[in-house]
Design goal:
alpha/beta, eight-stranded parallel sheet, 30% helix, 19% strand, binds beta-D-glucopyranose
């Protein structure tokens, strides 16, 4: 229910003012940075100073001083003194940068993700930001797509837990509270399913796939109270997502009861014309508003055509008011009518950003996000060995360009070298071929070949660390790749270093699973280092020295080769699965296994865990499954116990495995604990062929284990 204030505003605002409220523009439209050429973008969008005075929100305007000044100026000019809403992409931290979301997904620790969002909210709110375009809940299966880095991963359940944790972290109990910001779930819906992994490309998935795999994480974010939803660039069932009434009116509003605000993605309303769904700007505006998109980001069709659409009866005043009501309610919920600056405070901004407490939180989340993929008794390194000679090579050995996308303003980054020097003060370090890797975006595809010099420099080392990967600029939006191999000179570096006869530890810095299969024989240990943020170097040093025992697990499968993509654990069975069909006519590749290189849920530790006594019993509430987990090593460690189910026969086919729960337990050396999971009938529901969300009784395999490829199984029969 809108307040009296909002109803009064709606009665007195002009239609032009309302259409302005429904428009979002970048700060330079407001003349914030006088050095910017205002006429360019103003001319492009055809907006007058009168239009700008009524605009309701801005994006990516950073800094308390700037935002306070902009708010004052705008409110003085806005006919009703309505405050601007300041939104921004605060994706994995603000000044203190946390690991990319895909890496945080690998922590399997929602509380870590919540902490990262909480710190980001504190810092960004002090800088005058009131809402973040995060979390991105898009499910991802295709590492060619650059934006896999912004998603928690390939699993609906894990993504849902991470998404709701992020919403909680940003918003707390109430986004109006000091230090909190509102969250926006994006991109609704199915953006992660772009064909061929090419950004913005066609999406064509069935209604069942949409419901079963793609929607749960968005839904969880809505249920967690996210105040906003952003449309996606792709089409859904042949209609641009933002204009798709099935998505926005039916599913989001009616089925899920979302009462918040919907915003378009950047100029996405305009792109309905390019898609060939709207013939011109007027039709684009009509379709977007009609489908329920309240705010048009960075295009101006609402302002230009809204009035004539109402006059022609193609849009009703109720539709306009519905949208304006959503926006004003959001402003009210954030307390902007009382305090339009919210938490903007230059002093606090300075004190909070990159403060020791935030950096410590970033270091903790970063070390939880690292995944140890291989370890042939090389790691951990002995940090106390006097004079241990450590070779450091590769483009990420000394680089500070390791924050990952959406982290442009980050400073104070700890490089790998700095982290290692801090954690291994008695060691001696030798470097070679540490030149930065250029970006494909800039037409640079490799580093210069200084392999021979590097090998010469490092030949006396006791252990060699090869820090390789991809440039962070080649991950994220508009950063799709078809080849996921390391660049040729990086591969050569690892091959040649291995020939020195010393243990080689390969650290992979990337925003996506890279194709590292060819490198595995040449690396004695492999660490997936992602882009871990401000404390990347210290967190990696914690892992390499064993100050932190790795606990991360892959939240996305690593393909053997690009030709296998998409490869993900929770797939359906075929009628001819490998091993069951006779002769050659089985579902397989002739030149590659069906399995990924590293499966979902996989990750090593310096401890070793043994699973036993798996039980699954049926009771009144459903199924109670339990297992004994023992640390059979001498090292204390954290194990992520995962529980999967398989519904053996249904009225529609069911995935071979579905994650239903996970629990992290710390086990002292040789300690044993029981871990149990409750699986209710509700948790076994799925969408049948009429898209009803039903439980069907029958047989279920319950699986508990260390990863999706390493489980103990019990079969149970569960009735109505
Ligand atoms: C991206 C969004 C982002 C928006 C605003 C778009 O290009 O797809 O994820 O929030 O820009 O920066």
């Amino acid at each position: 229910m809108a307040s009296q204030r909002i109803e009064e505003l709606l009665r007195s605002m002009s239609l032009e003012e309302k259409l302005g409220e429904m428009t979002q523009l970048a700060p330079f439209f407001f003349g914030v940075d006088e050095s910017m050429d205002l006429t360019g973008p103003m001319a492009e969008l055809g907006l007058s100073p009168e239009d700008i005075k009524c605009v309701g929100s801005t994006l990516n305007s950073f800094g308390a001083e700037q935002n306070i000044a902009l708010q004052k100026k705008h409110m003085a000019e806005q006919p009703h003194g309505i405050p601007l809403l300041f939104m921004a992409d605060v994706i994995h931290g603000y000044r203190t940068v946390f690991p990319i979301p895909l890496a945080m997904g690998c922590s399997f620790h929602p509380a870590a993700c919540e902490k990262a969002a909480e710190v980001a909210a504190k810092e960004s709110s002090a800088s005058g930001i009131q809402l973040t375009f995060a979390p991105m809940a898009d499910l991802v299966r295709d590492p060619r797509w650059g934006r896999v880095m912004e998603s928690p991963g390939e699993d609906p359940y894990l993504n849902a837990r991470m998404t709701e944790a992020a919403v909680k972290g940003f918003q707390g109990e109430d986004p109006k509270a000091p230090g909190r910001i509102a969250a926006c779930i994006k991109h609704f819906a199915g953006y992660g399913a772009a064909e061929g992994g090419r950004d913005y490309n066609t999406v064509d998935i069935s209604a069942g796939t949409l419901r079963e795999y793609y929607l749960p994480a968005y839904h969880a974010g809505i249920d967690a109270g996210a105040k906003m939803v952003m449309t996606s660039f792709n089409i859904m069932d042949r209609i641009p997502a933002g204009a798709n009434e099935m998505l926005f009116d039916q599913i989001l509003r009616k089925e899920w009861g979302f009462t918040g605000t919907v915003i378009s993605d950047f100029a996405a309303a305009n792109e309905t014309i390019v898609h060939g769904y709207a013939k011109d700007g007027a039709e684009a505006a009509q379709r977007y508003i009609h489908a329920g998109c309240d705010i048009e980001m960075m295009s101006s069709h609402y302002i230009h055509y809204g009035k004539e659409l109402v006059e022609q009866g193609k849009l009703t005043m109720e539709e306009i008011d519905r949208s304006v009501r959503h926006i004003l309610e959001l402003k009210e919920e954030l307390g902007l009518f009382e305090n339009p600056f919210k938490d903007a405070d230059a002093e606090r901004e300075k004190a909070l950003c990159l403060c020791p407490e935030h950096r410590e939180a970033a270091r903790q989340v970063a070390r939880e996000s690292v995944v140890l993929l291989k370890n042939e008794q090389v790691l951990p390194l002995d940090a106390n060995r006097e004079g241990l000679k450590v070779g450091l090579a590769g483009p990420f050995a000394v680089s500070k360009n390791i924050l990952g996308g959406w982290a442009g303003t980050g400073t104070g980054v700890a490089s790998l070298e700095a982290g290692l020097r801090e954690m291994m003060p008695k060691a001696e370090f030798v470097t070679g071929m540490t030149e930065e890797l250029g970006a494909m975006q800039d037409g640079i595809f490799d580093v210069e070949d200084h392999v021979a010099e590097a090998c010469e420099a490092l030949k006396e080392c006791d252990v060699i660390i090869a820090a390789v990967g991809e440039n962070p600029a080649d991950t994220g939006e508009a950063a799709s790749r078809t080849c996921l191999r390391l660049s040729p000179n990086q591969e050569k570096l690892v091959y040649e270093l291995k020939k020195l006869g010393k243990p080689v530890v390969m650290l992979v810095f990337s925003g996506r699973p890279l194709e590292i299969r060819p490198m595995l024989p040449y690396a004695d240990a492999v660490v997936q280092a992602w882009f871990l943020g401000t404390e990347a170097g210290t967190a990696l040093a914690d892992i390499l020295t064993g100050a932190y025992n790795p606990s991360g697990r892959l939240s996305i499968s690593f393909p053997q080769t690009v030709g296998q993509i998409p490869v993900y654990y929770n797939h359906y069975n075929t009628g001819r699965p490998l091993g069951s069909a006779e002769g050659r006519y089985a579902s397989r590749y002739l030149d590659c296994p069906n399995e990924p290189l590293f499966p979902f849920g996989y990750g090593l530790s310096y401890s070793e865990f043994r699973y036993s006594d798996m039980r699954a019993v049926v009771d009144d509430e459903g199924i109670l499954a339990s297992v004994q987990v023992e640390n059979i090593s001498d090292v204390v460690g954290v194990e992520t116990v995962q529980c999967y189910t398989h519904d053996l026969a249904g009225s529609v086919v069911r995935p071979l495995m579905e994650l239903k729960g996970f629990e992290q337990i710390e086990l002292a050396a040789h300690e044993k604990k029981e871990v149990s999971f409750r699986i209710t009938r509700d948790m076994l529901r799925f969408h049948n062929d009429r898209l009803e969300f039903v439980f069907e009784p029958g047989e279920f395999d319950i699986m508990i284990g260390h990863s999706s490829a390493d489980v103990l199984t019990q079969r149970v029969t569960l009735g109505e």
